[in-house]
Q: What sequence folds into this?
């Protein structure tokens, strides 16, 4: 089958063997859409090459990538009977398969599962074979390009859960990419006030306003901290989400945090980046700093929340699998909120 | 000054002495709007008569009522300097003045303040004298009829806080009065899914839909429990708010609660009403039952949230103070979401 | 093998087929100790007879019972490799096997798992075959009679978690049986102050004092509510756990609850018992009422907490399996904190 | 009256005017005991000199210090009637007086009160005049040296509240001074398992063991991180409290944190110290980093918790006020858990 693979360097559409159901608990899915996550960029930049070597990929071997996809069930294993799945069902999926047995799974912390299987097969190919646990049915009338966003939505929802927002909380978001635009909508859905997006790209600021931001700040053309303090009457924001991945943005985010506020670092930063946390300031600010890793226990709510989210700007940049390079280039241009590969056309 | 007073029985617009600043920490406010709360109805039905006798009201003495109002500052005591209030400022108020010293105030539970002063002067008169603690400035461009809703909004926000909603939580609200319609909007602002309002009055169901309900149920013309379970795919709601005050509705609310769900009794029920809690069922359901009493620590966020709330249907039923009987009759008809008295016209 | 079975009516030690590993994910355990839970009494009173008929038990068929046990691994399935279990390991177990796939498991609510397998084999027999998920290794030097208490400890810990205790919270416990005595110790371990146990049996009150209760109340010889309010200076308790199963105790527990307090009904009450919740009183009290069903995600912490718990009074009432009637009679006498069957002697 | 004052440089026992009740809401207290807090050391090192200049202290003027004390009521203002205080009552106090009116007070965040009065008079003198809000009665049979510890206990309790400990949580504490030893006891009171104290002073490690630590680590003579990971079976601690103020300890604390764990920086670090937070590591660890500033809403529970705390090692280093230099030197030696000045002897 065709699969977009990481080739060390670069990505290509490659023919690889079609996966087949190997255990009775598995389900085979024909992929409809698969989208690019910012972490894929870190991968194709080579940051995970050591890991790939370790798990057995030799030079020249294609490495299937991607972990955001939707599609249609084509086969169901004999013991995959819990969810009532059958051929033809529209589904989305979660890329992590948790063991359910280890210390962390038994402790209610699946995100740290010691036996997690995360990357058995990439999402950017024609077919995937998944454990039934990972497959989630969506409504028959749910468009599959929208359903493709369940995974990024789930992890953003977890970030919102952990920030303990309440109606009227003042919220700022740094970065208007896919994650930022989901966090924006989720913050709005959580009753945020003075909802502010900090983003240098003009088009993305306009999209942010159309998705519910009350304010946007261009950090390249003004003093972002000053502007943020002006918006909040000098109090700062109750919660700030850093989703740009830029070092300078981290400092801005910390400075615009209200006393008693939450700061969530949501992006993947360059390896080894250390944020200098001023402990004297932090003490008086009584802040909380958090990160979010994976999204366990979230999919039922994430699927319910798909209906609450405007995904128009997430599904309007589709590329054919054979144009995968153009798709990645478009993502790297920084303009699209989300880039998606369309596997529905033959 | 003119004041709408409870006369045991009935309400009348009565001339009573205008209150004056008696302590340097006080602020005098000219009332613009004052609205009817369901609890006022309990008062004029005589349910608090014993209390009034106890605190010194003799037969025939007018009893000022009301605790939801907005207005304009007319005088500021010499020690009321914390909030920068000055004559002409638009304000709203919270009817409870907390002592800040007792066990509960020091324990972070102002709502149980042992020295609370709640009803020094009713809100339904031309002037109020308040402690600075109770007075909250609103933006200059905030309409005062909207600002009048800060108190009911604050208590509904507290109810929402205590229900631990998350984006995607399934929520139902029983009763489409002022409280129900605020809870509805706050639940929507909290990311509720399958948001359902149960309300027998057709006009109110229409308003509920216009304010964001995804479903409405008429409990008089259909099997409300069956309908609710159909909407939720047999799972029930994660949070149910009972805001109708009707006994039968309490049972419905319990039955449509999901496993692990929250049930909040938000109305004032007839004195002595005991809800029969089936402990065997409750055990398997692992439900949480809560009530909400007052709204301490809420006003800064409530005022921020005024901008997030559609109040059109709350401010469209205004009466002149001299037509107070008609105003109360309108409330009792069950049609208006909210009834308001307009003290701005001379 | 020998197994204590419910015979409708009565319990008997019966010869039943020894279970064998049927799936590669399973583990076989030789039981050392199995203890009586209050819910077993409900079973042998016939309250679950309809259920047993439904799942296929015909008249006269022995029904294996029990869900609290410890023992030694005797065989490990070829795919039961996550926990490093091997023959000879000391273990305890959790009687529920969760599917990990259904709506509730994926929603972080294993306690409501739609495919839970709870009673494949009773704990009160010589051998059990369990899924690896259910088996938990304990330290080599952990006495197995103590390890037998992991399950009741886990469910009490969940009750304590849900009550949101903080150091200095005032806590009362109604009922000094196994559950009450564990709640007592856990409340103490949570920093409870004025820790009070309400229990009519003199011996149990003495044990409660020895395990850390600051006060005990005999509800049969004094006005329990009055006494509780005296102890708490009129404020009542921040959290009250009802673990006696007695109807009258439920009312006492409600009345001694502080404003803003938590009331947890922890016992199994007679089918259909409805606790009359006075909504007017509840409103002013702003109480929270909860129940606790099962103990998902708890075993790693429960096993850690075994070291923090004094179990002397839980392991001092041991009976031989062939004396099972005497064991149950001892439990029914209300004197022992816990009754245990010893399967270690041949 | 005699008062231990900061003299820029050094401390001296100085005669200063005795404070008198100036407002009817105030209470005058004769001090019995006053203790040294680590923050006093920062003061006498000159770190707050700029602040003192700003608020009007000229060179040579004595600056009263201290904020931990107990004593006896000697006079009560005419409006200080809420708490039933009368001359002769044993009391302790909280050094912050909150306005109850500003944004933060109304938002349930007294710790950020914009009008807080924190240092009207130092605690290390013969008399204090306080607002009734700040004065807390203790039981008649409570020793006043023990009562002197209410304030440090209150702030440690707040730190424990914010760390969301549960029974069985694995906890480590870095630093065995007054704060560390209170955190240790509170962690134990919260059901901590594998409770570990990291402290270089042998005497303090012994005290830690006597107060309930299960393990102690000398960071100067062994690999503290390796030792901590050995104790926790490689998992790390669910919560780590840094209370030593040492830079190197901060790094150790971060490294021994479990996945999903809480790290609280509890000490005051040298001005400008920036802790380098490795965001890549932090992401996978999904940690929470917090600080604790002040202890609002805590005193009722802190006073209840005095009975739960062993204070023997806190009250055994008493100095006469005239020996204040020796007292501070003793504190600086690092040996005593707490140093206290005894104002009870004439």
A:
């Amino acid at each position: 089958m065709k699969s977009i693979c990481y080739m060390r360097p670069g990505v290509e559409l490659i023919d690889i063997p079609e996966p087949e159901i190997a255990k009775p608990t598995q389900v085979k899915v024909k992929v409809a859409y698969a989208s690019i996550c910012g972490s894929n960029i870190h991968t194709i930049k080579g940051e995970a090459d050591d890991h790939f070597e370790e798990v057995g990929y030799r030079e020249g071997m294609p490495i299937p990538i991607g972990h955001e996809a939707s599609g249609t069930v084509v086969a169901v294993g004999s013991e995959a009977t819990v969810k009532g799945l059958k051929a033809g069902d529209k589904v989305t999926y979660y890329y992590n398969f948790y063991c359910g047995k280890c210390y962390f799974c038994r402790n209610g912390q699946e995100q740290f599962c010691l036996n997690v299987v995360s990357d058995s097969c990439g999402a950017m190919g024609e077919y995937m074979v998944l454990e039934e646990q990972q497959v989630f049915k969506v409504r028959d009338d749910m468009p599959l390009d929208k359903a493709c966003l369940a995974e990024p939505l789930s992890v953003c929802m977890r970030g919102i859960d952990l920030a303990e927002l309440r109606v009227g909380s003042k919220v700022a978001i740094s970065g208007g990419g896919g994650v930022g635009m989901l966090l924006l909508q989720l913050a709005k859905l959580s009753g945020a006030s003075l909802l502010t997006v900090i983003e240098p790209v003009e088009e993305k600021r306009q999209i942010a306003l159309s998705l519910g931001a009350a304010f946007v700040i261009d950090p390249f053309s003004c003093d972002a901290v000053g502007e943020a303090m002006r918006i909040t009457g000098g109090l700062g924001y109750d919660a700030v989400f850093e989703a740009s991945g830029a070092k300078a943005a981290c400092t801005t985010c910390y400075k615009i945090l209200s006393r008693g506020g939450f700061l969530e670092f949501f992006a993947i930063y360059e390896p080894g980046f250390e944020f200098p946390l001023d402990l004297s300031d932090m003490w008086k600010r009584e802040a909380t700093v958090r990160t979010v890793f994976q999204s366990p226990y979230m999919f039922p709510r994430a699927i319910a929340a798909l209906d609450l989210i405007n995904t128009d700007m997430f599904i309007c940049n589709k590329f054919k699998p054979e144009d995968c390079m153009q798709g990645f280039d478009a993502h790297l241009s920084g303009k699209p909120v989300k880039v998606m590969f369309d596997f529905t056309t033959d």
